[in-house]
Specification:
Number of strands: 10
Number of domains: 1
Protein name: Outer membrane protein with beta-barrel domain
Organism: Anseongella ginsenosidimutans
Strand order of the largest sheet: 1-2-3-6-7-8-9-10
Order of helices and strands: HEHEEEEEEEEE
Radius of gyration: 18 Å
Helix content: 10-25%
Strand content: over 45%
Number of helices: 2
């Protein structure tokens, strides 16, 4: 299990370096390109019953955008999310809910209502790495601001695979 985690981290780090190099090369070779690449920091708090067992999720994503026209962009992101389980204790028992480690992959669209304010909708799959394996469908509407190379967004994300887990998420991104 440890070797799988180590290999996953190496693979993610290699993809990150390749992403940075490709982003820099594309940014230097094309002016006014409709392709954008960026890094996104994400955090979320769970809603409903999941909020009773989990504290928060924190992670990051590599993202790409492709401008269809001035108001609409296609989006793609792949990342890593670590969800912290809570600890409980009563008179007779002490226990801890296992942390989740997951790889969310999303595809979506952004619609710019104004030059800086956008609405977005994403869907995709989340692949669970720990404590067990599995996959769930992602559905995620959101709203955000884009100022120069920076992006700030809020979203409500739902993961469903027979059951449903939802969280309110926030992200801060930098695009090349």
């Amino acid at each position: 299990m440890k070797n799988t985690i180590f290999f996953g981290r190496e693979l993610l780090f290699s993809a990150f370096l390749l992403f940075i190099i490709a982003g820099q090369a594309l940014g230097q070779s094309t002016s006014g390109s409709s392709l954008g690449m960026g890094l996104i920091f994400e955090a979320g708090s769970f809603l409903g019953d999941a909020g009773k067992n989990y504290k928060r999720g924190v992670g990051g994503s590599l993202a790409a955008t492709y401008a269809i026209d001035n108001d609409v962009q296609l989006t793609f992101s792949a990342g890593y999310l670590h969800v912290q389980g809570k600890s409980f204790e009563d008179v007779y028992l002490a226990y801890k809910i296992d942390d989740w480690k997951a790889l969310p992959i999303r595809l979506g669209t952004k619609y710019f209502a104004t030059p800086h304010l956008f609405l977005k909708a994403e869907t995709g799959a989340v692949f669970f790495l720990e404590p067990g394996t599995g996959t769930a469908l992602i559905l995620s509407p959101g709203i955000g601001l884009q100022l120069h190379h920076f992006e700030l967004a809020a979203k409500l994300e739902t993961w469903t695979d027979g059951g449903t887990v939802s969280f309110a998420g926030f992200s801060l991104g930098y695009f090349f």
